[in-house]
Design goal:
six-stranded mixed β-sheet; 10 strands; about 250 residues; four-stranded antiparallel β-sheet; Rossmann fold; alpha/beta; globular; single chain
Length: about 250
């Protein structure tokens, strides 16, 4: 008798930009808790996120399942409703909307659906509560990332998909966001983080998958990759962890 289906199962996933193959048969599973996908720029990490979420480019072939449910062919809003909360690289906020408007336009649609509410997001990120009437364009980078995460949480996801969450943020802000993400995992939200920064990825997930040229080339424990400078040079193009964190 088979056990429960993995939280996320990606099988032979390929995607194209025009005729250019960007994802080449990507396969992996996430059974729960957290995992990280790392790799240099241009390896297909963001395309993988977009393909999982049903955003252009479309899947050419392959399968994405959430708790055994096939998501292939669903529009992105239906994938979100199925249980994947997506925080895109660059945050993709509306510059003219206030913090409160960003959150309440999601919260109105999902009232009573799950444990997350606008007030609970403000409890998680008190700094946002203090800036609720500021527009997205007036927030700092860290505050924008908090807002993007809070907006995703309002969909009450089973899995939170974060694309380059540390990009452009000061180390102190990164530390704060990492603490928040670890708390979410401890409370039962699955986490798949896509990062170029190995140090950040290793602090969020014990399991690391390395993407090279559109494929998952290597899978290991974060501690093992941190200790293997040769692998860091080969897969990530850095001389050491200190280089990766710079």
């Amino acid at each position: 008798m088979s056990g429960p289906a993995p939280l996320l199962e990606v099988s032979d996933l390929s995607a194209f930009y025009g005729e250019a193959l960007v994802l080449d048969g990507v396969s992996f599973t996430l059974d729960g808790a957290s995992a990280a996908i790392v790799g240099r720029n241009g390896m297909g990490k963001t395309t993988l996120c977009r393909a999982i979420m049903g955003i252009e480019p479309p899947m050419a072939e392959g399968s994405v399942r959430l708790n055994g449910r096939e998501l292939d062919g669903l529009p992105s809003y239906a994938i979100c409703s199925a249980g994947i909360g997506y925080v895109a690289q660059g945050r993709e906020l509306f510059p003219s909307l206030t913090v409160d408007e960003h959150l309440r336009m999601i919260g109105r649609r999902l009232v009573s659906r799950g444990r997350w509410s606008v007030d609970r997001v403000y409890d998680l990120f008190p700094q946002l509560a203090q800036r609720r009437q500021l527009s997205g364009a007036e927030l700092s980078g860290g505050e924008q990332q908090m807002l993007a995460i809070g907006r995703a949480l309002l969909t009450n996801p089973r899995l939170l998909l974060l694309d380059e969450p540390s990009e452009g943020l000061a180390p102190a802000i990164v530390d704060e966001l990492l603490d928040t993400c670890r708390t979410l995992v401890e409370e039962g939200t699955g986490l798949l983080v896509v990062e170029q920064n190995l140090g950040v990825a290793a602090r969020l997930a014990d399991r690391v998958l390395v993407m090279v040229s559109g494929r998952i080339e290597h899978e290991t424990q974060a501690a093992d990759l941190l200790a293997d400078e040769d692998a860091q040079r080969r897969y990530l193009g850095v001389e050491s962890l200190s280089s990766a964190e710079s």
